[in-house]
Amino acid sequence: VDSTISTEEKLQKVCQLLSDEIDYYNWVGFYFKNGDKNELKLGPYVGAATDHTIIPYGKGICGQVAESNETFVVPDVYAQDNYLACSIETKAEIVVPIFKDGQNIGQIDIDSHTINPFTADDTKLLDYICKRVGEIID
Ligand code: SME
């Protein structure tokens, strides 16, 4: 990636690319730990504006991944009790954690309007992206 652009811009490009190239990726965004607080803050994203710009640890799919350190694949969001709805069109979600020096510093969050769309290929792709993002984040 072009090193003259900021990390923020790189992440924005990643969101745009994923959203453009994969038809069932309908909202693509990054959340990062908000300073010393036990909450996530919305970073670069592509898709509909969301009310969830701050998410406390433990709340929703994103907040659960902030605590579990594990990828969370949700084939059907309506089957989840601890879920924060961003759009009524969203049917499925995948959240993959981002690690820096072994610390869970954030995540990529993808919403889909298609039910049960995610396979092992998505997990593999997003794992790779999150690993690379962990390397370029300060
Ligand atoms: N659905 C997420 C909230 C973030 S929006 O999808 C952009 C959750 O349950 O944590």
Entry keywords:
30% helix, Beta-Lactamase, six-stranded antiparallel beta sheet, alpha+beta, binds methionine sulfoxide, globular, 138 residues, 3 helices
Summarize the structure in words.
The chain is of the alpha+beta class and 138 residues long. It has a single domain (7-136), classed as Beta-Lactamase. It contains 3 helices and 6 strands. It has a 6-stranded antiparallel sheet, sandwiched between helices. A hairpin with a 2-residue loop joins β5 and β6 (103-112). The longest helix is centred in the last third of the chain and has 17 residues, at 120-136. The chain is globular. The protein starts with 6 loop residues before the first helix and ends with a helix. The protein binds methionine sulfoxide (SME).
Layout of secondary structure:
Blueprint: H1 7-21, E1 27-33, E2 39-46, E3 54-56, H2 60-68, E4 72-74, E5 92-100, E6 103-112, H3 120-136
Bound molecules: methionine sulfoxide.
Methionine sulfoxide is lined by residues 27, 29, 50, 52, 55, 60-63, 83-84, 86, 93, 109, 111.
